[in-house]
Amino acid sequence: MTAMMTAGPVVGTGEAVLRTRNLTKQYGKRLAVNNLNLEVYRGDIFGFLGPNGAGKTTTIRMVLGLIAPTSGSVEVLGRDIATHGQEVLPRVGALVETPALYLYMTGRDNLRALSQSLGSLSEQRIDQVLEMVGLAARQKDRVRTYSLGMKQRLGVAMALMNDPDVLVLDEPANGLDPAGIVEMRELLRALAAQGKTIFISSHVLAEVQQLCTRVGIINLGQLVTEARPQDLTQGTGQYVVFVENAPQALALIRQQPWGVSARMEPNGAILTPAPENRGRNLNKFLVDAGFVPDSIMYQSENLEQAFLRLTQAGGAQ
Ligand SMILES: Nc1ncnc2c1ncn2[C@@H]1O[C@H](COP(=O)(O)OP(=O)(O)OP(=O)(O)O)[C@@H](O)[C@H]1O
Ligand SMILES: [Mg+2]
Fold first, then answer.
1. What CATH superfamily is the domain 16-232?
2. Domain ranges of the chain
3. Cβ of 54 below 6 Å from ligand 1
4. How many angstroms separate the alpha carbon of residue 190 from the centre of ligand 2?
């Protein structure tokens, strides 16, 4: 065994591999991206979330140097891409929206064409990436005959050809069936475990919750929050209460300062916060008021609920 040196700039632990500073893009009067500051660390699987039109793709295009920011900057591997793009951008593999594919060519030939344009054709690397994305069996078919999910996988294969340090994927789960989503998740996890840093935009929140180590939520071009998924959903759950005379119990709860947001579900369950966020306090309050609960259950918020809470509050254009 020979000792191997890892190539490229050394990035210390906790060092940002991808960073935007006051990144801004204006189209006419519309601020598509507004003063965005993001930090993505080595080994992160960073989920970039936001409603349609929030500015995700515009941000990704700027990160990849495909469009110039109106103001602000992007650093990849510690270098400003405006001045050192030629040095660092080849270390980034990307898939933006739908991949640009030659439909009349086979999947394999698309990878060959890309490989040649990158400067060296490696049939072995093509075999590897086809295997990684689960397209080996269909590599000799024309892309025209591929399903949406297969095209998406081929796009990911193209992003992987160069064995990049950083992968930037705009909605990689787009068009994938449930089994494909699981495979994509496993592939991205395996790549992160190899030390690659992954930045993905997504609308599939259950997927992001399972996959991502950190998420950034963007709305109307601005960062709403950047956190670990578990931090977004922690302490924001509600209690599900079944009780006789639920409408009266609900009316009483809503008169309390902690219970203003309580509401009733169609199945008659009361969904409510608790005094000091403690179930036992809610239980005592109800019992003291003469409403002995049949059951009280804590239901934590999922990422989808957190996302809607964070992007709908004051989100009107
Ligand atoms: N080339 C362009 N010219 C003018 N406006 C643009 C252009 N590209 C994007 N926009 C606008 O910028 C805003 C952000 O668009 P962007 O594509 O970044 O959103 P997104 O978050 O990727 O949305 P989606 O989830 O639908 O993919 C939108 O209001 C969009 O209309
Ligand atoms: Mg987009």
1. P-loop containing nucleotide triphosphate hydrolases (3.40.50.300)
2. 16-232, 238-299
3. yes
4. 25
Strand (E) or helix (H) holding 115: helix 107-118
Q: For ligand 1, atom 3, which residue shows the shortest CA distance?
A: 27
Is residue 287 within 8 A of residue 281, CB to CB? The reply is no
C-alpha span between 99 and 133 (Å, rounded): 14
In the prediction, which pLDDT does 2 show? 40
The ligand placed nearest to the CA atom of residue 59 is 1
What distance in angstroms lies between residue 289's CA and the mean position of ligand 1's atoms?
Answer: 53
For 151-180, b/e burial (b = at least 16 CB within 10 A) is bbbbbbbbbbbbebbbbbbbbbbbebeeeb
Confidence at residue 13, expressed as pLDDT on a 0 to 100 scale: 52
Q: In this structure, what token pair is assigned to residue 263? A: 């509401």
Q: Does the model's pTM come out above 0.85?
A: no
Which residue among 20, 34, 56, 58 has the greatest number of ligand 1 atoms within 8 angstroms of its CB, and so is best to mutate? 58
* Burial grade of 103 (CB within 10 A; 0-12, 13-18, 19 or more): exposed
Write the CB contacts of 226 (distance below 8 Å, at least 6 apart in sequence). Answer: 38, 39, 214, 215, 216, 217
Tell me, what's the pLDDT at 313? 63
Which stretches of the chain drop beneath a pLDDT of 50? 1-12, 314-317
Question: Residue 147 has which token pair?
Answer: 């399903």
